[in-house]
Known about the structure:
single chain; about 0% strand; mainly alpha
Amino acid sequence: MRSASQTLSPVAAWYRPTVYYYGGALIVIGLVSVVLGGLPHWTVLIPAILGGLVCLAGFAARQGVLSDVAASACALTIALLALAGTATAVPVLPYALAGSSDVANAGAVVARSATALVSGGFVVTILLLWWRSR
């Protein structure tokens, strides 16, 4: 139980839920990719694996192993890595959705773009939360 001096500010109380939402979104992207595209290669599971790691950081914060700020920093690191690996798919997304023959694997482009957009949204959100809690 927290004492009055350890009570979270309304902004800081959003760290752990935001981490869980991001991890859950990545897991959903990974599972939807597997359901819709099958499992042609293990790389289809990368978003789900990253989401599991993010949720693990949130769980560690819940158990008191990490602070909420440390868990969000772990999740931010994963988000930046995911964004670096997937951001190049976003400009190709319109062509993949239009069914262009120039796109070899439209499903992979959609999954990578979704991962990039969700990761970018998380990076912006967590940075805004850190800024607001200062």
